[in-house]
From TrEMBL:
Protein family: Belongs to the Nudix hydrolase family.
Name of this protein: 8-oxo-dGTP diphosphatase
Domain Nudix hydrolase: 1-125
Keyword Translocase: no
Lineage: Bacteria, Bacillati, Actinomycetota, Actinomycetes, Mycobacteriales
Organism of this sequence: Gordonia amarae NBRC 15530
Protein's GO biological process: DNA repair; DNA replication
Length: 133
């Protein structure tokens, strides 16, 4: 059975900035930046899974919303989907990542051009730029 990995586009509406997280592992993607998230557990909604993962990994509260962009097949077992999210409480901390960064549209494009994003997440570049516009 395919498991879903949910990833959060956490956008601060006031500053029009997106939260990116720098991966620590595995070696293939260590140092690259991603939309933070994790695997959906049995019986969990995508939104509940993402709210749980972000609380665990970033120590912050979000409200997860609708899916955007295309789903990405990562392997035979894993499919990656992106959800919109809005910060609700707490400042994000890199509890599981190397670092965190808020980027505006120009910053996101520059990182994509420099090849600093996790490959799967580049699928959502245009969608993310639209959300930040
Ligand atoms: O912690 P672990 O690596 O087991 O899992 P994860 O962080 O939940 O990610 C599961 C898979 O999704 C990994 O292959 C990640 O590289 C991938 N992923 C991704 O490509 N882009 C994201 N924004 C989040 C996860």
């Amino acid at each position: 059975m395919t498991r879903i990995v949910v990833a959060a586009a956490i956008i601060d509406e006031m500053s029009a900035k997106l939260l990116l997280a720098q991966r620590n592992y595995p070696p293939e993607v260590a140092g690259l930046w991603e939309l933070p998230g994790g695997k959906v557990e049995d019986g969990e909604t995508w939104q509940a899974a993402l709210e749980r993962e972000i609380a665990e990994e970033l120590g912050m509260t979000i409200e997860a919303g609708q899916q955007f962009g295309a789903a990405v097949g990562l392997s035979v077992e894993l499919e990656l989907v992106a959800l919109r999210a809005r910060p609700v409480g707490g400042a994000p901390r890199a509890l599981d990542h190397a670092a965190l960064r808020w980027v505006d549209a120009a910053g996101l494009r520059a990182m994509a051009d420099a090849g600093e994003l996790v490959p799967a997440d580049t699928t959502w570049l245009e969608d993310l730029l639209e959300l930040l516009a």
